[in-house]
Amino acid sequence: MINEENAGKGAVNAVPVAKSPFTHASTSAQAAAAIGAIPPVLTEFNCPLCNKLYYSIGDLTKHYEECHPGRVVPRIVVLHINGKDCEVLVEPHWTLKRTLQFRLGLTGAKHMCDRGVCGSCTVIIDGRPVLSCTTLTVECEGKSITTVEGIAADPKWKPLIDAYCRWDAMQCGYCTPGFVVSAKALLDRNPHPTEEEIKEALSGNICICGTYPRHAQAIMEAALKMSAEG
After folding, report:
1. Where are the alpha helices (DSSP H) in 70-135?
2. Fewer CB within 10 Å, N- or C-terminus of the chain?
3. Which domain holds residue 180?
4. Residue at a domain's end among 109, 137, 164
5. Structural domain tally of the chain?
6. Checking DSSP bridges between strand 84-90 and strand 122-125, what pairing results, if any?
7. What's the pLDDT at 133?
8. How far apart are the two ends of the chain, measured CA to CA in Å?
């Protein structure tokens, strides 16, 4: 097993937080920067067991044969995330959430229950909201993945984020990315949901602060504005 300290080594460098006012424009720019910082092609290969650095998958494989016989060699997986293809080196047991956070620097999918019950790590895969903490990265090759960073960076979804802010549909904010991702998935397949349909779509997301009454109002307002904007 690899620990979180080693998991972070070799990950994409964190994008510095801008010191500009907290606005949709600034957060959208930060999200776009985080996506843009992901290299499309791997040039370095860290051994997750001893953290030795190699510059080809062949050298890493040889290292495993010599130093870690019997252990499963990490593999390169090509993921399509937020409209961008990228190579990522993972072990077969890695979840998508772990890969997003520790290999790609996309921290919007939150670590909360890690048991598939709270919805804080929700992403969209091929149009469906999926819990990234129970999804293996190697299962995601060839699929289209959208994270909350992709939503924040897309001007189309500004009304949804604005509505969440206007209706105070968050308190600590830790679970909010999961709710926003689930809401986006809902509006993609049902642009004019009823309050009951919204509650059903968000039923897999848990908020310990108890902001539930606000989500439906925010999503319905966003739906109206997006419909008016065409």
Report:
1. 96-102
2. C
3. 154-229
4. 109
5. 2
6. unpaired
7. 97
8. 50
- Which pair of tokens denotes residue 60? 């890493």
pTM of this structure: 0.87
Of the candidates 77, 109, 141, which is a domain's last residue? Answer: 109
- Residue 91's pLDDT band, with cuts at 50, 70 and 90, is very high
Q: What CATH number does residue 173 fall under?
A: 1.10.150.120
Which pair of tokens denotes residue 111? 């670590």
Directed axis angle between helix 24-36 and helix 158-166, to 10°?
130
Q: Which residues contact 90 (CB under 8 A, 6 or more apart)?
A: 74, 75, 77, 99, 103, 137, 138
Grade residue 230 by pLDDT with cuts at 50, 70 and 90. Answer: confident
Query: How many other CB atoms sit within 10 Å of the CB of residue 70?
Result: 6
The token duo for 25 is 């424009």
Token digits of residue 120:
């804080």
CA distances from 213 to 159, 170, 177 (A): 19, 11, 17
Question: Lowest mean pLDDT: which of 5-19, 107-121, 146-160?
Answer: 5-19
Residue 78 and residue 56: Cα distance in Å, rounded? Answer: 16
* 134 within a domain of the structure (yes/no): no
